[in-house]
Amino acid sequence: MKTNQIGKTQVTFKSNGLSIAAILYVPDSISSPSAAIVVGHPGSGVKEQTAGLYAGFFAQSGFVVLTFDAAYQGESEGYPRGLEDPAQRIEDFKCAVSYLTTLHIVDPDKIGLFGICASGGYVIAAAASDHRVKAVATVIAADIHRQLRKGGDGKQDPAVIVSMLDAAAADRTAVAKGAAPGSFPLFPASGADAKALGQHVYEGWQYYNTDRGQHPRSAKTLTWNSVDRIATFDAFAFIDQIAPRPLLMISGSEAATLWMTKEAFAAAKTPKEIFVIQGATHMALYDNLKHVIPAVEKASGFFKSAL
């Protein structure tokens, strides 16, 4: 891959009145105004983890790149901490685009969105109604609603979501009576517990809870008042409205979430392309360079053509 010196600057922008913490990547080789990409982190992640890995590679390919922490998470403002609100997440992406349009180094007609995991769903929803976005690419795209209702592999017992909605309702009642918003853990307590739930869960636990990828600001819990917000959200509902702007969806042949990417891709209109990396699991496309680099090269070529 091309090697550029990359300048990284801490910046902020506003989203629904909240200050959003971001990092702007600027390659030394750009000619202003340049094409730009907003990279979104997975659910519970922060901008310094896999989003930062992909952002650095895109910047080395010559793009201006912006990563950010979702509102209520990481270094961004918002209370309660750990709230996952799909409407706010979509607004965060649109406001990230707005921020890029104010920069003299960015061509406002050449802005793309790149989403990883849950952000792969959010960028689809954001682009569907924001025509300033000229191209969309995802890697291991996951709709957080499908994740909550059906599990990452689509095999979750339907009773789970019923129980979670009961708990979310009880939490809202408790808050109305003066309690602080409650939350629940996102990960099993130990590696052994995670392994008992399957390889997909174990790999997620390993990335977020060991030296492999953990970060002190990544979310380890989710607020109960996130659950009923997520339960009626569908990240892929309006994917057909991205057309005629191009869409690229990347996943792994061994990714438990491949079924979500396939569902989304089937509902999308042309121009569209799906790219499946053989042997890659969901989490391998977070940080395993054997699989990440082919994903980056595919997405970089896509954005160079589309923008």
Question: Which descriptors would you attach to this protein?
Answer:
307 residues, alpha/beta, Rossmann fold, 8-stranded mixed sheet, two-stranded antiparallel sheet, 11 helices, 10 strands
Descriptive overview:
The radius of gyration is 18 Å and the shape is globular. Helix 2 (86-101) packs across helix 3 and helix 5 packs across helix 8 (224-231). The protein has helices at residues 50-60, 86-101, 119-129, 144-150, 159-176, 191-196, 199-209, 224-231, 258-267, 284-287, 289-306; strands spanning 6-15, 18-27, 34-40, 64-68, 106-116, 133-139, 183-185, 221-223, 247-252, 272-277. Strand 1 (6-15) and strand 2 (18-27) form a beta hairpin. The protein is built from 11 helices and 10 strands. It has 307 residues and is of the alpha/beta class. The protein has an 8-stranded mixed sheet, with helices on both faces. Strands 7-8 form a two-stranded antiparallel ribbon. The model has no long low-confidence stretch (mean pLDDT 96). The chain has one domain (6-154, 233-306): Rossmann fold (3-Layer(aba) Sandwich). It starts with 5 loop residues before the first strand and ends with a helix.
